[in-house]
Write a structure and sequence with these properties.
Eight copies of one chain form a homooctamer. In chain A, the strands form two sheets. In chain A, strands 6-5-7-8-9 form a five-stranded parallel beta sheet, with helices on both faces. Chain A has eleven helices and nine strands. The first copy, chain A, is of the alpha/beta class. The two termini of chain A are 30 Å apart. Chains E and F meet through loops of E and helix 7 of F.
Chain lengths: 250, 250, 250, 250, 250, 250, 250, 250
């Protein structure tokens, strides 16, 4: 129900005077003014998945939210930072696929990929894969074709260079690395598409839980690189999905 | 000249044997193998501007680079971090427009805007404008229509909200703020397009030359936000231009 | 007993000479000089609760302190940072209500609210609720009416704006947020009452255990914001209670 | 003019239909909806001064803003972080009093003090006085009686203790200190009113431009202490003024 | 045996020629040259305790070292950072007194106190007591009379002031505090003897595991304060013992 | 198989024309161009060990890699950061020697030492030994004679000086220390060979997990010191081995 | 005049009743209670110099303070952080000796040395000398014999070792170093007297303005080391003077 | 003269008894014991240059040191961090070549190169050249052939790859980069020789004056990389020279 419309109708019908209506409008929750799009800003486009941030929620809470969404017709739900224990609990109640490494649960069907092109997810090492899978699965659930290219760190640059074809043809690249985070700069120098850089907390000592990689990526000498928080695979996958679904806005 | 072709031709003509050719190929500079696209990765698309990073270069060096580019047919050149003194020197030799606040010089004509839509540049305060202009002019030179929306910081949220129309219709938003950098999160929550967040060194005390804003933006609770280096207006303008020119890649 | 009075009486009665008295006074503990108000500075006003910081104390120690206070007529005791185990132990000996999320135990009755108006406790997310409850319960025990407004983070600004009525009518607002901590600035911009900002350690990566939110809040572009330590819900509740009980001091 | 009223009137008069009005309302700037209080949140109460942040504005810009305010009937204007040069320029055009140490300019008359009581401004050393004067003058311009108590650092605790009378009778205390910032804790322990702590950048070496004092104040073992940014005298004066003007809010 | 003397004797007796002796001397371990005092620098004066740093050593290793020392006539051994488990093991083999809070084990007898005067150990709170006990027991084992004055933090300055007699009569004061570490400055301002300041990791949030207290103490506005590492009770006790045993050196 | 040779042969034999070959070459993985040395850059010289970084790999994965290497004729394999559990698993399948302290597993035979001279591994304390053993074993596996000199920290400089002979005759020195990391400077001042400095995370409080030692070593006042990451024994051993095997390069 | 005595006398003489006297005492400034020693805590012993911290004071202010002190019979005044310009001004009015490198001015006569022994001031390099001179002159003005031993950094340990005699015979040692600050540990290991360590801001890059040296010194593996603030030569000289004048306190 | 020999001779000749000699030896400066090599540890090999650190020395001091060295037969002197002004002064008195960019002055002749091979100096950008020249000139003065390869940053990896021949044939590589410092990892992955990584303070914002590059290089995923201080070109050149002159040590 749209209460603003009700107020306007009451005014039109002489059931409410102008001053009274003015007063009422001040108190209206904003979304009633038609800012529904505000409420739905998290959707890249119509029909895509809802997202639940699983950390800090009980299995029961997550189940409740899922069931509510499903009842409201949501076809795909992405649950991030979902523990194995919670996943086991959920599997008893709803159809859910759990990706252990990425700590991601997916309820419902992954939509067939759309978008401008492919999203390439590259990592510097094998230890970065959990973050990479969070990014890749997020992008897939949001309707993107994802190419995975793991363990192509800059210490063996030929491994990266031998995949130039994929790098050159990607629509968006998510570059994920811990330690010194040099991957973002090198990939940024090779590719001519937007790069989302994700520092990871992989490393020890002066890696300072991802700080070294973060600073490195922010200072990338390559153009066209945007950085997200340490280990934030979801954020990178989401932003990449947005970019890969860019459309003309008149 | 393409030396790899020469080698292949020599092999075909029997003037060089296979082992000898193999040896030669190992030593070839990479670009000779046709990786010209590597060399040109800095171009968002054909015909756009070349960029010169002016800081740390003498006026004479900048002039030399410009003249060389112009002789090679470059129609538009963007010079960032260009001092007033260097600009005055250049104006005696080449046609250049100097934007003092942004410290940007533009040689040649700004192309008429293309791309998917408009790039919105928003700032938290008036002190952020130099960085904003660097971003805006960069985006314009790279062929984008830019809307400027300055001094709409979150301490007066109604100023920002009164421009919902522009926020909702933007193709990409560059959110620029110093101090606590909250603008990126608020804008990220309102818009449904990619946000490039630029922390600025505006502020004092615990702003720590932009560190507070940087950390704030990296931790944005809104999805779809990528961050660039402190005060890096150029990087934001460049990435936004890339995103605004996304095309289908089969 | 007031020893200073005894000394003075002895001097008056000629039982102690002046020099001797002078010497004695130097050694008197300060409170004996009537600085009893120094000793009781922790009381917001007469009759309110005593506070015990539970962390680092054994259940037996806490019990002892409580029993001592109760014997001295204390009607309400607030125990912060109280573990579940200690709470269980205490419940066997004294009437105590334990609030698990806030890790707060309350002995005795919560006084009926007084003060100038209502204290509004707002949080950015649901993960901030433990800190918020520590603040809210502290304020309630200290005799304040508290309104809770949780999970109204700035990434969905309409959620916050739809509660303008409460924000505008609050006497003091406690703004609690982790991650980028932008809530304090936005609320500070909307309200015209004092804001106590509480950064929380909620977040990961570049949140650096609350540092990002702390710096953000210290740099708030809104006026009228004071900041307390990370996760310091008690401190915020206490300060808010003080402000809400301001009285004319001639 | 209130456009929302116009729209409502048009609906009442049948000159605009409900759907059309609904569409119009979505685009209305927020203040038109009566959020004038949002716009005026910076006023502690009716009739007080407007504030201009002088840093980063040209003397001409400041003059323009002042003249505009004065034409609109503003009786008192506070200009913070105003350089001597700008002050000299302004003095040629408008009646302004310049406080060099505090870098504050005051246009118009300082209102006679109101509020619940006195604001006490204490500093640890003489080097903290510029920040203290910014706080004190801000509070005075906002209609408060201010008591100054400078150079009473904790290394000579008797200096502070000899002013117990003032400390005990203050309505709000602003405690300003650099170096180790211990003043806030000691004053917080002595007083029973809210304390606004201001770390200053006074000190050298491991003071790290105010970081030591900032951390010290955030960790104050005394209750009832809120902290503002390093060197932020204005913020402290403003918040203290707010607290000193607390009124019953039903 | 002194090998240098042997060499010299051999030279004197003509059994070794000068060049040969010169060569030998280059290879002599330094202590053989009589730098025995180098080797024994850890002794404050003849007859005092040996110290074993227990962390990172197995119970068996500690036992071995103790037995070796005891066989060599050592009367008192101080073992710091000794775990409860290791203490239990040791108690089966050698006479040892274990102080659980301080994690200190003492083998043998504590010497009767000597030195210039008393060492006063003060703490800000009760949570600082483990560090304080490490300091106090270290000083006692090294032959000092120790006065303990715990939980006299600056938030209740009268508690500290009521012990002026002890503060004024101490020979050396060890000031131990976490959180904001203001105790060192206040005590330093009251006393006229050397102060050893020990920051502790007590606190949370912006205490950053003792960093706030450390910076605070290093920036103490009081003269005569030396700082040791965070939680380094042993170091403070040792340095205080040294100072309390100062003797004339001609 | 070398695909580049195949292409060249096809060109020579007229089975592929030049343009077609040119196109093919662009897509060739780099190592096919003969950059095999790129691929083998991790080998100090022919015949030495392969290295597996054990952290973050499952025992099964490590086993698989080992078996693959062994089938390809690898005689010696060094596994770093290998957990006890993984070592136990591996011992059931392949001949492996496990060094628990260093967390290093060695498959196959350690080659007899070669190189220019000896590598001296010195540590400041006994707690640094795990890192030292990682360095020493790495160097040994890579064909170097290693001298161990442990617990010769600078607080007892005579211990270090009594080993001048070894210090002066070393080919490369690996100086390993936590806490204040002064060992690198002192050894660097004594020796006339390259020093590899390894800060360790040994220490507490202001050691900040190795940061103090790291900064100390980077600022060494001695010349000829290169630093590796905190606790990076492997990196130091590897670099030392490289330096100890320097050969004439024409 | 002692007001407390007056009050007591009035009570004794029956001119003031007990309650009235009690009230009066509450308001007495503390020093009137005989806490004169509090006021004079900055004096190491009777008759020594007063200290003025020159930074942030105008030449006129310094002159005024000096003249006031001199009129009150002060024989020696130490002015630290005194600029050349201020010194030139002072020289026109009072007899003052200015030490440019140390930025120290001394008014009056330096007392002949007393104390237990000699204070040894050692520096790592020549760039540390300004801080060293501040320490040395401070100690001399406070009545100590000072031995200077400069540029004996640990990179050439023999330079330090060749002065073992002086190190062993010192009463207190002030160890001053920038860069890696290793000097404190090495000296602490050689000497058997208290060491005051002073980190300096000498160095560049990762020296971080003295932070590296500060952390290094706090983590010294030698016992008996206390640290003061970066570049705080005065603080070290003062503390050393205190220690060198230790006396029996019954 | 060797005083130890004199003592031994006196003992042999019966002119000094053993106890007396023992006493004398304790006081001998260490170098007299033949540790002359300690004193000359700064020489890579006989005949090379002496080094003067010019920063913080007056032109007159530098001149004095140079003249003294020249009188003692020193053929080549390297002066680092030499200002233009000092260089101009020196040129009036001694034959000196000044390299302005590197701030290096060279007195005398540069020796003809020796060593195992060539030292390759690579930089990420043109702004890194001053540091690179400091490194290159240092290495040349110390008798090494140096190849310069500037502005081959990783954002254009082909530039680096086109110089594989030089990278593969280098004896030691000095990799110099600011911003994200990724160059060290990429070069370390390509080369099979020791890499000395030098972070520079080039960059802005989150480069934090070289911290980003420093952390990046310390975390290099390539093996065989040692890091020196930020901007420490001299240190890198010196260490590289040492490594390039490695010789067999029996």
């Amino acid at each position: 129900m749209n209460e603003v419309r009700d107020i306007l109708t009451a005014v039109r019908d002489g059931k409410m005077d102008v001053e009274e209506a003015l007063q009422e409008l001040k108190l209206q929750p904003f979304q009633d003014l038609g800012y529904a799009k505000v409420d739905t800003h998290r959707k890249v486009r119509q029909g895509t998945a809802e997202v639940i941030y699983g950390a800090g929620k009980t299995p029961e809470q997550i189940l409740g939210i899922c069931q509510n969404m499903m009842e409201n017709g949501q076809k795909t739900i992405l649950i991030t930072r979902l523990s194995s224990e919670a996943a086991v609990f959920l599997q008893d109640h709803i159809p859910i696929t759990y990706h252990k490494q990425a700590k991601i649960g997916i309820v419902g069907t992954i939509p067939s990929p759309s978008g401008l092109g492919k999203i390439l997810v590259v990592t510097g090492g094998t230890s970065d894969i959990p973050v990479a899978e969070e990014a890749a699965l997020t992008a897939e659930v949001l309707g993107n074709e994802v190419i995975r290219l793991y363990d192509v760190g800059v210490a063996g640059i030929h491994r990266l260079l031998s995949h130039m074809e994929q790098i050159m043809s990607a629509s968006v690249i998510i570059a994920i690395a811990g330690m010194e985070g040099a991957l973002a700069s090198v990939v940024g120098g090779l590719a001519d598409c937007p790069i989302i850089a994700v520092p990871t907390s992989v490393g020890y000592g002066a890696a300072f839980q991802g700080l070294a990689a973060l600073l490195s990526m922010l200072n990338s000498c390559a153009s066209g690189v945007g950085v997200v928080n340490i280990d934030n695979g979801f954020g990178a996958g989401y932003l990449a999905a947005m970019i890969n679904h860019m459309e003309t806005r008149p």
